[in-house]
Specification:
Chain lengths: ~500, ~500
């Protein structure tokens, strides 16, 4: 299929159907120069000769030579035709001969940094996957999100956007959204802050990584709830911090144990409202003990308030931040959990001392968050839709949780697992007897089309946790009942 | 203004107008417990007594006690009333007495990491500011962006979004957008890649920081164009890399100088299509020399293709990536420069070896980019609007550049500054005589309402650059002429 060119035994690939011949000739000549088949300073046939050799119009050859001359591959010498440029490195790519070599690329031998080389599989990238199998955790009710309203708000906001909204970004976030968040958190979570302390981020993962970099040096100790959130663990390990697992019991993080294990830790990571994954609340006594320790130890506290907006019973405990008069609590939350996961907006309330360093670090990381999205969310707040959505979801989730609890009390799951007392959130921890190891249950459940997260994967130092994390927010009561029957089948069948 | 309560000399702040009295009493009691004015285990007056003392209904006092009991601040002992919880740390906050102490917060003594402490002012966070003064650099034409069309696409896309688009994110980016980018770059920039090598990011700053972390260890050498882009410099310095300034001349980066200065560098940062800030293109000879060096030195090349889509004369030089058969070029671009700055979407084309580590690191950093925005941009591509917009902008920018050049050739700026030959982009470098130091010119121009960036701020090791970076894309020809007259006034007046 290849034509032979009489000069230099040059092999050209045939032109693809429909491709202009000038473009074809340009590419073939350029490739020949780059692989060294056409040597530096060698003389090319005249445009007339080339046209004849390839059976194409001379104008086509001239059209191909133009860009080669302009780009420096060829040089034109008055009166003697065209030459391959003299100053090109000879046989640049050391490619073997034959037409296939042009696509045979070698891999670079350049390497990764130590950090890059150690990126482990503990916190794998998120890939597209089938969504919405029943009991998948960490998902809000996507069937109930008012997407038509959101689309209307977005369309209006974007059509009206002037050059300010198109051009002007603030590394701290869109000011009206920061103000709406400060107001909301004051009322809903007792957070004491001004809008100046609120920074809009893409979600809690970004806050975690930025805080980890800002306050941790290699070897610094960090209290981690055990069991606890893997994304936080990964962020701390990425900074080569020494993670100290601190056990969680029915009152939440065992603060006294933390003080024994690592009295001089630099940071404590905690989910006080609704411990991830066990679901318990940190008791008031421990809240105060934790704050007292942090003040004395000059430590920071990272309060991950990940789904505490959804509380079903009792008045919500105010945030740890609301009790903190020593300004050591970093309070983080995410709209991705409250509205929908692909929104990619969240917030952090920072102690005054950390505000400027955090904004600086975020600017280095990705400059500032998308402004139109923030403006739409600000409208969603200001027009009252946010509060309304949270209230509606609280009701819906309570109903979905009730359906789940019923299946475990008197339905197909009765006697098979033990759902922990749950006051808030989008998922419930369910404990299994030791005879049913949670990793095996996960596999058996998957075979039944049910997705459950084994609690044991969240263990850091301990080995006594055996159970499942059951998401109930993103499935209707009917779907929950159906899935419970399938899960019961998996539990019965495999053991 | 404060009432005296007979027990413990307790001082309550008066209730704010409109605040429910139960909420007021709850907060005041809670504050008194937290500051230690109400001691652990101390007995509270009966609800009847408290109601009488404060002249409020007994039901109001009961309503305030409820959450305090529930949250663990108070304990109820059968038959003997309510007590402050026994296990609360005594006088937790050690606050001085007086009603103002509750708001007097101390700053935490917790500190920053070495990295956090070194965050310098070289790359300050982006704050909201007045936009669109003439000659502001790095801004596309926001007056010409088809915002109504974008709003229409967004509204349609969002209204139709199902649970997949609301819930499903991929750390590598939205697949149809990755495919559209791969197709576009193949045609427009000669980039050789599959969609698998394309990762969607928030912009080039995110790519820079991720690449820096992924491939640089402290002390590793990095070639930086001198003068060069400050954001890249900051990203490399953040990893404690040793930045080696390599001079730029009329052929672009002086590759031979780089080889002399740091033959074993790990990374070279370069803007070959349109050097930032000088505007020159890297010659073909140097492109090939750079690639040959990188292959031999096992170095990576970071090709920042920041505004090369807008080329006014000649056929665009294909990207460096298109010449790279050793897979060492990381090719980065940004839609924030091509469409509008607050969009926060960009792309990187990675050598196969870096794809997985990069996606992993990005997932650790912020999980994945906003999906609806990506879907709207994918529609913008697929329906042909992207190509059309780029073509329209190329014409508009050529017209705006012509207006600028005219002011410098025969208009008010003639003889005052020397605009460098420019083939592409959104801004032009203009050199000043040594008698007009660019920092002073910036100040004088600002007083005239004109924003110019001094070229000298982009110098890393050298000290011979004196000039201005003049953005011309975001101002109409008429605005450019007017601003040129003002700039001429500033140049004439101040020296």
């Amino acid at each position: 299929m290849s034509k032979k060119a009489p000069f230099n035994e040059l092999v050209f690939r045939p032109a693809e159907a429909g491709k202009p011949l000038a473009a074809w000739l340009y590419e073939e000549l350029r490739a020949a120069i780059l692989d060294g088949r056409l040597k530096a300073s060698s003389r090319l046939p005249s445009t007339r000769q080339l046209a004849l050799q390839h059976g194409i119009a001379r104008g086509t050859v001239i059209a191909a030579f133009g860009p080669l001359l302009e780009e420096g591959y060829l040089e034109s010498r008055q009166g003697s035709g065209s030459y391959v440029a003299a100053n090109l490195p000879d046989r640049f790519f050391n490619a073997p001969s034959g037409p296939s070599r042009r696509t045979a690329a070698t891999q670079s031998e350049a390497g990764l940094s130590r950090w890059g080389g150690k990126l482990s599989a503990t916190f794998p990238p998120r890939a597209s996957k089938e969504l919405g199998l029943p009991f998948e955790a960490n998902l809000p009710a996507m069937d109930l999100f008012p997407i038509a309203l959101w689309g209307r708000l977005a369309g209006r906001r974007i059509r009206q956007a002037g050059r300010r909204l198109l051009g002007e970004g603030d590394s701290a976030g869109y000011r009206p959204l920061r103000e709406a968040v400060a107001d909301h958190l004051g009322v809903a979570r007792g957070v004491k802050c001004t809008a100046d302390q609120v920074v809009i981020v893409s979600g809690t993962q970004q806050t975690l990584q930025l805080v980890a970099r800002l306050v941790l040096d290699p070897g610094d100790r960090v209290w981690m709830e055990d069991p606890g959130y893997i994304g936080a663990l990964a962020a701390f390990k990425a900074e080569a911090a020494q993670v100290v697992p601190v056990p969680v019991d029915e009152q939440g993080l065992d603060v006294a144990a933390g003080q024994r294990l690592a009295p001089r830790a630099k940071l404590a990571y905690i989910t006080p409202a609704h411990q991830f994954p066990l679901g318990v609340s940190l008791s008031l006594e421990r809240r105060l003990a934790l704050l007292r320790w942090a003040q004395k130890a000059k430590a920071w506290i990272f309060e991950d308030d990940y789904d505490s907006e959804y509380r079903f019973s009792g008045k919500p405990l105010p945030s740890l931040q609301s009790l903190d008069s020593s300004q050591c609590v970093i309070f983080a939350g995410s709209f991705n959990k409250m509205l929908f996961p692909t929104l990619r907006l969240g917030y952090v309330v920072l102690p005054p001392k950390l505000v400027q360093p955090f904004i600086h670090a975020r600017s280095m990381m990705d400059r500032f968050p998308p402004v139109l999205d923030q403006a739409v969310l600000a409208d969603f707040f200001i027009e009252g839709h946010f509060g309304q959505h949270i209230r509606r979801m609280r009701e819906a989730y309570a109903e979905r949780l009730a359906a789940l609890l019923e299946t475990a009390e008197s339905g197909p799951l009765a006697g098979l697992l033990d759902i922990a007392y749950i006051q808030a959130g989008m998922q419930a921890a369910a404990f299994l007897p030791a005879t049913l190891p949670d990793m095996k249950v996960m596999t058996a459940a998957a075979a039944q089309g049910v997705e459950v997260l084994p609690l044991s994967v969240f263990q850091i130092g301990r080995t006594d946790i055996n159970g499942l994390l059951l998401g109930f927010a993103n499935a209707t009561p009917a779907a929950i009942r159906k899935a419970a029957a399938r899960l019961a089948k998996a539990l019965g069948r495999s053991f």
